[in-house]
Write a structure and sequence with these properties.
Strands 1-2 form a two-stranded parallel ribbon. With 78 residues, the protein is of the alpha+beta class. It has helices at 2-14, 17-21, 41-57, 72-75; strands at 30-34, 61-65. The relative contact order is 0.16. It has one domain (23-78). It contains four helices and two strands; from the N terminus they run H-H-E-H-E-H.
Length: 78
């Protein structure tokens, strides 16, 4: 009985330790790629979303508009 209690206490103490060593995420600014031109409805929605994400993540979110080639430029892996 004593052994079980001791193990439970040690487990409860050790459980939160890895969270102190973790690096905050994200480390760099987040880039939100929008496959349409600036000034349209998709851009306005992306900027509203970026503002909400900035507040939630406490990290800068950048909107990158990549229009052209029917959205293929925005979908390309850069």
């Amino acid at each position: 009985m004593y052994r079980r209690t001791l193990l439970a206490c040690l487990g409860a103490i050790a459980a939160p330790l890895p969270s102190f060593a973790a690096e905050p995420w994200p480390v760099k600014p987040v880039t939100l790629v929008v496959p349409s031109s600036a000034g349209g409805g998709t851009d306005a929605f992306a900027r509203t979303l970026a503002q909400s994400l900035t507040e939630a993540l406490k990290q800068t979110v950048i909107v990158d508009n990549r229009a052209g080639a029917s959205g293929n430029l925005g979908a390309a892996d850069h």
